[in-house]
């Protein structure tokens, strides 16, 4: 594994310089919460396996007895200000009011609170005032580029299918920050790996020229059993119609095929699509002409489609499984930052 050389085009150098100025500006202005903050983020525009990794880290810390509160921006929502999505007992808001990923995390993580808001420092203070028990640790979802809030630990996910995003920023690349930004990360996690090997160590070594000094780890992405929203599993051989609004729909389709499902039709929408009525009508029409037994979607899309689509709906849950060495390292770091 080898990272690409730093870009040398004028536009890429200009964008990279703008990011450096932004980091310097926030370096002395970022605010701190009175509890430890762990960030899980990425350098890519979507599709890095970040959300399953957030869920895995939150569940691990919860099971250690830590009162975890996930702080999220609530991307794609229409809500305003700070909103409590879950106090640990399931979603209190829908995806329009909170965003699809916060609602998904709230539903999958009993015992973990979820709070959203554009100012995550204010969101954290709100959580400390309103939640019982008060959070003992904040988990910052998609937080690597959120420089307004200081964090005690930065975890960065890199998708195995495209770990370096072409090495370039938009518009000619797929990175939201230059690869040199990884120098401020504490650990790098290669998500979606297959098989065994030195995947995590190879990633860390590839990032050394960019100033990364931390450890690298690997994380597998495991599909669960496809299940109907009304109950019951989908057996292998079931004819399904795929409807997704994710960054990497090809990977989802490949996973569905690997489970023995027969894909007889598909509609792909932009990542974080809100599914207005026109989109629901398109899905219904395409499903009826496909002869599929169910509409199969991701868990993130299911929270937006359930109750709005009068069709047999099913989801394919996905979970992250980091290697054991990651959990050993993380436990040591959590003990350190909690004092």
* Overall strand count: 14
What structural category do the secondary elements indicate? Answer: alpha/beta
- N-to-C order of helices and strands: HEHEEHHEHEEEHEEEHEHEHEEH
Number of domains: 2
Strand content: 15-25%
Query: So, CATH architecture of the largest domain?
Result: 3-Layer(aba) Sandwich
* Helix proportion: 25-40%
Give a verbal description of the structure.
- The chain is an alpha/beta fold.
- It folds into two domains: 160 residues, Rossmann fold; 90 residues, 3-Layer(aba) Sandwich (Rossmann fold), CATH 3.40.50.
- It is 32% helix and 22% strand.
- The chain has ten helices and 14 strands.
- Strands 3-4-2-5-1-6-7-8-14 form a nine-stranded mixed beta sheet, with helices on both faces. The chain has a five-stranded mixed beta sheet with strand order 9-13-12-10-11, with helices on both faces.
- Helix 6 links the parallel strand 7 and strand 8.
- Helix 4 packs across helix 9.
Strand-helix topology:
Elements: H1 10-27, E1 37-42, H2 50-63, E2 68-72, E3 83-86, H3 95-98, H4 100-108, E4 113-116, H5 120-130, E5 137-141, E6 153-159, E7 187-193, H6 199-207, E8 216-223, E9 227-228, E10 239-244, H7 249-258, E11 262-268, H8 277-290, E12 294-298, H9 299-305, E13 313-316, E14 318-322, H10 324-337
Summarize the structure.
This protein is 32% helix and 22% strand. It is an alpha/beta fold and 339 residues long. It has two domains: 10-66 and 136-221 and 321-337, Rossmann fold (3-Layer(aba) Sandwich); 227-316, Rossmann fold.
